[in-house]
Amino acid sequence: MPLETADRGRPVALQEGNVPRRRMMAWLAGFGLAGSGVLAALSNWFFFKPRVTYGPSARFSIGKPEDFPSGTRISRDVERVCIVREGNRLAAISTTCTHLGCIVAIADTGFACPCHGSRYDQDGNVTGGPAPKPLPWFKLTLAPNGELEVDKNTQVDPGTYFNV
Amino acid sequence: MSTAVKDPAPAKGPAPLWSALRELPTNVWSSIFRNPLPSTDLERASTSFTNFFLHLHPVKVHRNTLRPGYTLGLGLISLFLFVILVFTGVLLMFYYVPSTTQAYDRMLDLRSTVAFGVFLRNMHRWAAHGMVALVFLHMCRVFLTGAYKKPREFNWVIGVVLLLVTLFMSFTGYLLPWDQLAFWAITVGTSIAAYAPLMGKQIQFVLLGDTTVGQEALLRFYVLHVAVLPAVLTLLVAVHFWRIRKDGGLSRPEDGEARGAVPAGMVQAGVVKMRIEPAVESAKRKIYGLQGFVRGPFTKVGNVPDDSVYSWPNLLMAELFVLVLTISAILVISLVFNAPLEQPVNVMHPPNPAKAPWYFLGLQEMVSYSAFWGGVGVPSVMVGLLLVVPYIDRGAAGVGRWFARERLLANTLFISLVILNVIFIVIGTFFRGPNWAFVSPF
């Protein structure tokens, strides 16, 4: 209020002695708030990213090798995987369409997706439609109890078979 | 009633109980409503800004903003649809359980045991579709009348965000019935998110809470649908409305043209006299408060040749008319058409073709050409263009008129994009059969 009278003629910045300190406090407070905002956003990301999922496990048994006679292609829709056996060689090919996640159906030529018309050959290579990538192959092992185990967390190169 | 405003003369001695009782109704009424039904301009102004529910309105609005043919009431209809959605949505929440084992049964219960269950679900579903359509049409109106120009640039940006929130609201609600349509539409929709660069797979995982659509996804979408997104939408709508006033009211046709386009019967409070008077002269006699001292592009009192009318009753009558129209339309549609409910979720058998909701079918059609460009690239570019258009298109000519000749280029580009989008939606809706193969609907 008394700026015009008492402090007339002095530079504005010096009219109040504690302005620099006050400004520094404001900067620090603002910096602190912005920092905690960033931290809050980050921690929210980790909060929303579940550490444990409640859905079906990515590693699961599918039965003994004898359950899959040579020459069969058995699609297991619950686990979204197709078990292929040729002679003594076994493989697990994903049946989740690489386009938009529909379940591909087994067709004479390989696989066909009902959602957007993607088509794959017997080995999961794209032969038509909008799918951008071939169907992945999953790691197949024999558990100590003699049952085959699929690990959907581990992909193997297409053409990599498991010999029994 | 009008006697209630003046305090009665102070009673001499203790007031007798019987007179307090006799005046009880009047006193209660006047304690609730500060003003009698207005009969003068001062009372009309007072009614607007002393009532909590009415003070959202300015005391006066420019008469040209009331022309039905200019705004078509599209924004207001969107708001009323949102109000209907909140009311019906809260009622539906009383019977809904976000569980994969119970959700679909609860849908069937709405049909069989809940009183008015089908009707409430119909209202909610059709109002949701209507809101998506009306918000989009409102955006078209604002663009084609050039109403996003300075000083309303940022309100346009908020409007674009509101459109996106509306779409996300609708998308999250789509999963909740847990039928085949819901499951596969969300499977396809969230897979589109996975095509986003760098973080795509992570975003999909966080959105679903799992690698596939399941219980976690249903719970997350439910919380987003009934709590998070409505709160965000309400906040943004509040800012959107507040900024209308702070940006100087709605954009409008210029004063000179189309005078008298408002039917004479709609304007009841003194307009004609004030328009003729010099502004300063009229300002002297006016009674106004703080807003008279505020500088800026605000709705001003007394310093412009006045062509405004009182919000009570002119604006309120128009709003009431739109409200009645909106409610009747939703009621009639909900009586005639039932909201679809397909078979319960069967993870093993996707319907063929699996289609998204209609407003995403244009997106799905583009996705069938290229998942990245159709699902992420083109939509991002479109939204980006919408966000920056008020900062690129800076010309001031042609604001406040439909299809202004000065805005031929901008309007042509905008209409072309809208038509392109509509064509994609029509193709996706009617011309796509099993395996997304081209079929003829005829």
Could you characterize what this model shows?
The complex is a heterodimer of chains A (164) and B (442). Chain A contains two helices and eleven strands. In chain A, a hairpin with a 2-residue loop joins β5 (105-107) and β6 (110-112). In chain A, strands 1, 2, 3, 4, 9, 10 and 11 form a seven-stranded antiparallel β-sheet that branches. A four-stranded antiparallel β-sheet of chain A has the order 5-6-7-8, with no helix packed on it. Chain A is elongated. By secondary structure, chain A is α+β, with helices and mostly antiparallel strands. The longest helix of chain B has 32 residues, at 215-246. Chain B has helices spanning 17-22, 24-32, 41-50, 68-71, 74-93, 103-112, 117-144, 153-175, 180-193, 200-208, 215-246, 272-276, 279-284, 311-336, 358-367, 371-392, 408-430; strands at residues 60-62, 308-310. Mean pLDDT of chain B is 83; it is low at 257-277. The relative contact order of chain B is 0.13. Chain B has 17 helices and two strands. Chain B is mostly helical. At the A-B interface, loops of A face α9 and α10 of B.
Which spans of chain B of ≥5 residues are poorly predicted at pLDDT below 50? 257-277
Derived structural class of chain A: alpha+beta
How would the global form of chain A be characterised?
A: elongated
For the termini of chain A, the CA-CA separation is: 92 Å
Rounded to the nearest angstrom, the radius of gyration of chain A is: 31 Å
SSE topology sketch:
The complex is a heterodimer of chains A (164) and B (442).
Chain A: H1 3-6, H2 19-48, E1 59-63, E2 73-76, E3 81-86, E4 89-94, E5 105-107, E6 110-112, E7 119-120, E8 126-128, E9 137-142, E10 148-156, E11 162-163
Antiparallel strand pairs in A: 1-10, 2-3, 3-4, 4-9, 4-11, 5-6, 6-7, 7-8, 9-10
Chain B: H1 17-22, H2 24-32, H3 41-50, E1 60-62, H4 68-71, H5 74-93, H6 103-112, H7 117-144, H8 153-175, H9 180-193, H10 200-208, H11 215-246, H12 272-276, H13 279-284, E2 308-310, H14 311-336, H15 358-367, H16 371-392, H17 408-430
Antiparallel strand pairs in B: 1-2
Helix pairs in contact in B: 5-7, 5-14, 7-8, 7-14, 8-9, 8-11, 8-16, 15-16, 15-17
